[in-house]
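User: I'm new to structure prediction. If I give you an amino acid sequence, what do you actually give back? Let's try with this one:
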Amino acid sequence: MINRTACDVLEAMRQCDKTRNYSYLLGLVEELQNICYRMEAGLWDQKEFKAMERRHKKLKKEVKAMEEKLED
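Assistant: Good question. You get back a string of structure tokens that encode the predicted 3D arrangement of the chain. For your 72 residues, that looks like this:
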């Protein structure tokens, strides 16, 4: 599945336990770890983006203040 969620993988792990077939459990653990890595990376990207937005606003204010000072 392209858009498989962490909950889907956890459900597959539960199915492993229900059927007592653990042959593909390690693969599911790897898949869940990759999903979590992508989620963490996305959260980190959002945090950086918001920080850049705040920095951009601050710099715009500084530029505007300098332009006004230059006009005087």
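You can read the tokens as a compact description of the fold. Here is one thing that stands out. The longest helix spans residues 25-71.
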